[in-house]
Design brief:
Layout lengths: L5 H13 L3 H15 L5 H14 L2 H11 L5 H13 L3 H10 L6 H13 L3 H12 L8 H15 L2 H25 L1
Helix pairs in contact: 1-2, 1-3, 2-3, 3-4, 3-5, 4-5, 5-6, 5-7, 7-8, 9-10
Amino acid sequence: MKKRDAISWTVMILGFSLHGKGELGVELSRRMEKEQRAEIDQLTCVAVLHCCTTACMVDQEGKFYFKCIKEPKVAHYTLMVSLLARVRLFGEARAFIEKHHIERPAEVLRALLDGCWIHHRRNIGKRVFKQLCCLKPLKTSHKNWISIVHEFWSRYMSLNWVLCLNLIVLEKISTSLKERIINT
């Protein structure tokens, strides 16, 4: 490629991340900054943050690139929580969620839950799952909600815990359906 622009660099950086080569993506972003002699834009910051998450690069890179995002959205917070959870910084992930006043969206809690699964942190995973069950209103479709529940059950739970959560989820779904019927 004769002329490289921010879009071509960003696509290459994200490609490294999507193929599990986060370190190479971060290295490429540094090379881009040197060769382009320009600041990286918002989309490139997100791509590099994705690389940092893939490569578990928290301290210098991950936090730096998150701070470069001017107006973070839920997807950006989710990437940062995922990064912290992947490197076992569960306390820091919880503090991050509280500091940024993230209103417990399912995506962020799911990222935290994935970190619990990776590192076999069942106690934290149970608490996060309970928080997922208590989200109001139920923002994911019933089909997605049930798939999340079954995935979590298959990874973590004993039979007694599964039966308990089954009742919670069924109650949640029936309450949500009742509210929809009343509001229509």
